[in-house]
Amino acid sequence: MAQLVEVDDPDDERLADYRHLRDVELRRHLEARHGLFLAEGEKVVRRAVEAGFPVRSFLMAPRWLAGLADVLVSTAAPCFVVTERLAEDVTGFHVHRGALASLERLPLPTVEDVLGRARTVVVLENVVDHTNVGAVFRSAAALGVDGLLLAPRCADPLYRRAVKVAMGAVFSVPYARLPDWYDALPAVSAQGFTTVALTLAEDAVGIEEAVAGLDKVALVLGTEGHGLSGRWQQAADRRAVIPMRAGIDSLNVAAAAAVACYVTGRRDPQRQ
Predict the structure, then answer these.
(1) Domain boundaries defined on the chain
(2) How far apart are CA 102 and CA 11, in angstroms?
(3) CA atoms within 13 A on the CB side of 38
(4) To the nearest whole number, what is the mean pLDDT of the chain?
(5) In the chain, count of helices (H) and strands (E)?
(6) Residue 96: what pLDDT?
């Protein structure tokens, strides 16, 4: 059972995992150095623990202890009990969900591991906004995608904001980092997947037509603003577009991913 430890000093070194949560660069270095990530909110904390991530510690306001009592019983990690004001002083924002947990990262599967167990995957090229990455994971989990592949420059799915937006879907959908950007899509195609790039290219066809009759599909989406690079557009096996009303040429990458995942899932009614 977790040991409840009351803390009243925001400078207490035991709270180091929870400092400066709004500073993305600082957190990136800190979390990489210590191999940790943070989960925020009762549901997300619970899902992280249930997914098997080892707990380093918890940080909770007293009124949230009861809601996570069963989780606290399941681990020997310390639970630092603080006032909501002190939690805000430490983290740099109002922790309105009341509970935080610091957890250890687990080794990522390889690209081959993810593809070997998948029929539908999403491939993201340099999507750098954590909110968008989290939203893509949430849609992928809801719409039957089997895994995600992330280009080297994609945002970290285990960054607190991404985890929060995904509502813990980053713990249930397998993902891997692509080791190489330039030849990433040919390598996916070589594993038996048809890569379908979402793009406004002149030869793009409607998404329904692009995925019809395919067995293994890899939906490829690009970064915010500029979309897919020219290299990835040309390297993809097919190019597809989501038909829209006149005057609107694109969707936010997270919205586009949701539509594409839904349409792709419907290519096989027996699997819905």
Answers:
(1) 3-104, 111-271
(2) 17
(3) 25
(4) 93
(5) 11, 12
(6) 63
CATH number belonging to domain 3-104: 3.30.1330.30
With tokens 């592949």, the residue in question is 149
Neighbours of 262 (CB within 10 A): 14
- How far is 8 from 82, CA to CA, in rounded Å? 6
Q: What is the chain's length?
A: 272
Percent of the chain with pLDDT over 90: 83
Pick the CATH number of 111-271 from 3.10.290.10, 3.30.1380.10, 1.10.10.10, 3.40.1280.10: 3.40.1280.10
* pTM, entire model: 0.92
Q: What gap in Å lies between CA 94 and CA 46, rounded to an integer?
A: 20
**Helix 253-265 crosses helix 130-142 at what angle (to 10 degrees)?**
10
CA distances, 125 to each of 45, 97, 246 (Å): 28, 32, 27
| Angstrom distance (rounded) from CA 250 to CA 30 | 36
Measured CA to CA, the distance from residue 256 to residue 180 in angstroms comes to: 24
Q: Is residue 218 classed as helix, strand or coil in its secondary structure?
A: strand
Residue 272's pLDDT band, with cuts at 50, 70 and 90, is very low
With b for 16 or more beta-carbon neighbours within 10 A and e for fewer, the 17-51 pattern comes to bbbebeeeeebeeebeeeebbbbbbbbbbbbbbee
Count of other CB atoms within 10 angstroms of residue 146? 16
